[in-house]
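Your task:
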Amino acid sequence: MQPTTNMTKMVIIRWYAPPPALLLPHHPTTRFSSSKPPSFVSEKSSSPSSSSTTRRALSLSLAFSSFTFSTTSSSSSSSEAATSDFFELQGSGGVRALDLRTGSGEVPVDGDQVAVHYYGRLAAKQGWRFDSTYDHKDETGEPIPFVFTLGSGKVISGIEAAVRSLKVGGIRRVIIPPSQGYQNTSQEPIPPNACSLQRLFTTIFNPTRLANGEGSTLGTLIFDIELVSLKHP
């Protein structure tokens, strides 16, 4: 019987110490002397037209967010305070207006082609915003203003009354009574979204609620309108 030879295999593990850490110079936190944080804007938005469009949209959105219209109680002190600065536009049929910004351009007359940006809300739905020109975009993503001929009768009377005495560059908030709002479903401006369009007109022309005497509130509209430009014929 041959003796068993135990062979021991030795594994040699070589350990290499990592190189010393690379020390970088310390950079203290950068502080800005201005109270405003730095802004990062895309190349597209830095163009003059995009910047002005953004400012217009911001102006109108801030205007809307600062206003609450109440139709629940005409004797409410808060409701009276909210509308105390409004004035009735002459010959408008009861349209009340509040000038949010005074323009410096021309005032349009009937026959002029005017371009406006707007936010439209329905008072009967707790200020539901049913349409805005800033939601209508062209192929480049820029909002498309609403263009119409003043005095053509294609647009609801309340908007025509608001624009007729507004200078280019001005922003005006108007409360439009039902008699100066939508009288039929073909009057402009019409929301392009089918759901919003249906909700708008089924609210305004709801036969049951009209029969219950709610017509004085169903069709009340609130618009913030900016007159962007005008073109003479």
In short: Confidence is low (pLDDT under 50) at residues 4-48, 64-79. The CA atoms of residues 44 and 50 lie 7 Å apart.
